């Protein structure tokens, strides 16, 4: 939805590497969007699967490979993985009380 997924993924991978976490090479980005994520989005929630490609220059993605995920498929991919809401993550990093949208 107009975001720079590969730059965000590169930065996340760098941060996790600093604390000794390794992201598998076949990792994908799943964008979860809806009214909660930005002003002007539709009321319906949706998911986009974004394959990530790693190279010597970092992470890249190809918009031609992005695809909408049916909600059930997104749930199946995420099943068993640790997930949290934006609100929970904001509290974890100490930014509660800050308006972030």
Automatic annotation (TrEMBL):
It comes from the Bacteria. This is Uncharacterized protein.
């Amino acid at each position: 939805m107009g975001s720079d997924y590969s730059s965000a993924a590169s930065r996340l991978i760098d941060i996790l590497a600093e604390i000794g976490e390794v992201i598998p090479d076949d990792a994908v980005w799943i964008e979860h969007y809806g009214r909660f994520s930005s002003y002007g989005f539709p009321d319906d929630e949706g998911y986009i699967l974004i394959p990530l490609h790693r190279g010597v220059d970092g992470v890249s993605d190809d918009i031609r490979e992005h695809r909408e995920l049916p909600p059930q498929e997104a749930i199946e991919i995420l099943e068993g993985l640790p997930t949290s809401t934006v609100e929970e993550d904001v509290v974890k990093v100490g930014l509660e009380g800050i308006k972030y949208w």
